[in-house]
Amino acid sequence: MARTRDLQMGELQAVAESFPIWKAFLWCFYPISALVLLELLFGGFDDDDDQDGGMMIPAYQGLK
Question: Looking at residue 61, what is its pLDDT?
Answer without folding.
Answer: 66
